């Protein structure tokens, strides 16, 4: 894997070769990574996996035609062959009046922000094994846990560099550490499974393995002997580990591509109240040690803090250059991409600001409702906003959590759900997308 400086030099070199070969414009993206993962099951080592890889992708423009391809062979002959192939492909591609590099005057020229996402830690497989074993042992020690699907510990480092023919060539590196466990409780047909995990940029920020293990075991035990609730409209409360999915549907609906194609249930909602006035949602790519922090976007534009929902109002779309040109707007610094193809758009570290009441107060007046801890399936229509997901969790009876529930479906429409949403005050920055406990009244629950 290359260093950041070496990667910057490689993408700049590849872009220069493309211009020399006849491309009117070009950009190149390098992604290199190394990761080690150890998996334990029932106290025995089940798997040790070490992976290292690097790849560089090239996108070229010939007039209004473009094409892209990639290679994992980072040598001069390989680069020459890649350039020749991609330029030839571009000359035969259909014209696209919207495809282009990001505006040169918008490229990031300042010093990289201090997002602090690389702890420089060396990977120690023995320490990973000990961490995974500690996690599983803690999970299996919970009374009632009867089997284990395993526990794992991982460590990784990634280097990313982007170069464009408009003079941008910059990169950065980041590390990641994780620990997880998945166990089963009960016996026979009544067995229940649950899990817990934590990820962090810095090893020192990673939660203790025993804490994660106990959490997995206690969650599995709590799900034993579930019932099926009665059907009908009722309040639904989303645990923070599943509630963040509601933000994912929002982001999918406000990308420039969805708006340009008219395939979004929020197509006509710009500048309008989508949520209640107490809801604010922020995208923060500069969060220190954030899981999705980045100094610049996938086109070289400076990433910046964006209030996507401001006191309930949708403030704008998330756009890469192509969609912005199609809509007659400007790119917003939210471009995301892989090695191949054109950039899309997406969020980085996303969160909803907390409300003013505790989770207990949020459910205190609920006579009968559902507290959701697990969502199943992908029954969401991005065009209409119709929402229908399998779910599991707990009954809420007279303001308190009661019996576990399973085999139910919760349904509604995201427009109605967003307007009815009430957040608690328990926001924690634990995942890439974070929300407090959320309450939505009037959802349709289909149970027994």
TrEMBL record:
Location of the Metalloprotease TldD/E central domain: 120-224
Domain called Metalloprotease TldD/E C-terminal: residue spans: 231-447
Higher taxonomy: Bacteria, Pseudomonadati, Pseudomonadota, Alphaproteobacteria, Sphingomonadales
CC annotations in GO: cytosol
Organism: Sphingomonas cavernae
BP term (GO), one: proteolysis
Family, per entry: Belongs to the peptidase U62 family.
Name of the protein: TldD/PmbA family protein
MF-aspect GO terms: metallopeptidase activity
Coiled coil segments of this chain: none
Occurrences of domain Metalloprotease TldD/E N-terminal (ranges): 26-90
Leader sequence segment: none
